[in-house]
Structure formats: C-alpha cells, structure tokens
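In the design runs reported in the main text, the only information available to the sequence generator was the tokenized backbone. The following block is the verbatim input for one such run; it is reproduced so that readers can re-run the procedure and compare outputs position by position.
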C-alpha cells in the first residue's frame, strides 16, 4: 500500500514533513526518513532529540478508510510491527509499554507519535512517527536511567536502519491491511499482550492534570488498557498518558 519513500539528510520533523506533503499526493501512502531532525517532536509537545545518524527517524503517512475513532489502533499496529522488526533484525526481545513506547532491558529505545487529520467520520490522513535509538551513545543525566539504544544494549548489533525499515514495512503492511479490510487486529493484540511491560504492574494514569494509580490487568478487544482501582473496580483507559511504576 506504500507508494513512495522520501529519504532526507535533514528535516525539521519527519511527521511535519509528511503532513506538508499529504495533499501533494492524493490517495497515496508514503514514508519519510531523515538522518537528523532539527525539531524532532515527542508526545505531549516534548522535544525528541534526533542527532545525525544516531537513530531511525521515520514517519508513515496513510489514508485509511476507517472511522477516526479507530485511529489509535494504528499506534498498536505500528508498535507490534516495529517491535517484531527489531526483534528479528537485532535478535532481541523488545517490550511494548502501552500504547506507544518500545522498551529494551527496562529502558526506552523508541517511541511512537501518531497524529491525525480528520473530519467527523472521515480521515484525511494519519501520520505515524517512530523514533528508534540505534547508535551507541551516552545519554544526558536526566535520560540516562530511562533511555537507551540498540547498540548500547546489544553487543552484536550494528546499526542498520534500512533493514529495520524493510522488515517493519513488511509487518506493518500485513497488520494494516488486515485491520483496514477486515477490522481484524487479533494478531496485533496478541503481540501487544505478549510484549507488554505494562500489564500486571502499577500504572499512573494522567487525565486532565490528575494522576491516579491503578493495577493494569489486561488489554481488551479494542486495544484499550483495563485497570483496577484501589477499591478493585475495573476502569478502561483509552490512550491517555500512562506511566508505568517501577520502570
Ligand atoms: C515519544 O515517545 O514521545 C514519541 C517520539 C516520536 C519520535 C519520532 S522521530 C520520527 C518522528 N518525527 C517526529 O518529529 N517525531 C517522531
């Protein structure tokens, strides 16, 4: 389903660049990759450090014919496809911190930022931005305990963005078609459940500035996180900000 790929030395943000090209290619889906981003963006308006050739910085723009409310499932699809791709290429076992962080040995190696342009009942386009730290490097003191890279964690791994990208696209395409054509995300849910570093843990959920603490118990059939509150009552979380205690 991908029609094009753009490879750039430097862009402000691959998400931003993809959006700027969205209307130039009506009906097309494409990928943007950059060696470095001057304004890489993380979730919640955070900056995403994207130094030259230290990671895979990419965005995938697609125009799925689905209800905009279903769009968050694309993040689960991307997480499953990327976690599997890294497992295969780097021979490791990547975890998924629901819904959009990729974890290796308890630290973050990558994140996903999904952005949507939609009208009621209709998606203009969705941009799925993924950043994976690959190169061996030192992180600043504030990130040191939280972030890592593939080369930092895996002695035998040598940075190879094209291979990760190819395997990612292969998996993503399969899950995406299954979802868009048949509303089927079973395989994606299985991977997200098996690889989850969120389930059976204490999670902090931030909604409207308030933080509540729960126990994460399962992902439901829509990919939402089901938690138990202090009183043992079930509550369903859909793509709020979740931080997992203990990681
Ligand atoms: C997060 O964990 O906060 C999400 C990080 C997403 C970073 C990627 S890098 C490629 C794409 N372009 C951006 O500006 N952000 C995403």
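Verbatim output:
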């Amino acid at each position: 389903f991908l029609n094009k790929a753009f490879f750039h030395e430097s862009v402000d943000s691959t998400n931003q660049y993809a959006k700027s090209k969205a209307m130039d290619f009506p009906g097309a889906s494409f990928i943007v990759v950059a060696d470095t981003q001057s304004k890489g963006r993380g979730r919640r308006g955070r900056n995403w450090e994207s130094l030259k050739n230290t990671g895979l910085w990419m965005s995938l723009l697609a125009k799925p014919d689905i209800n905009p409310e279903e769009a968050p499932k694309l993040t689960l699809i991307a997480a499953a496809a990327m976690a599997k791709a890294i497992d295969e290429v780097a021979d490791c076992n990547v975890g998924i911190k629901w819904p959009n962080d990729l974890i290796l040995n308890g630290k973050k190696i990558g994140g996903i930022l999904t952005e949507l342009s939609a009208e009621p009942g209709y998606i203009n386009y969705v941009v799925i931005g993924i950043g994976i730290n690959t190169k061996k490097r030192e992180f600043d003191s504030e990130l040191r305990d939280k972030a890592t890279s593939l080369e930092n964690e895996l002695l035998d791994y040598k940075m190879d963005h094209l291979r990760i990208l190819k395997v990612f696209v292969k998996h993503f395409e399969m899950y995406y078609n299954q979802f868009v054509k048949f509303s089927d995300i079973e395989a994606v849910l299985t991977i997200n459940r098996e690889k989850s570093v969120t389930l059976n843990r204490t999670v902090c959920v931030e909604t409207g500035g308030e933080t509540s603490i729960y126990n994460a118990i399962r992902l439901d059939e829509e990919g939402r996180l089901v938690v138990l509150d202090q009183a043992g009552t079930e509550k369903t979380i859909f793509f709020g900000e979740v931080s997992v205690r203990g990681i």
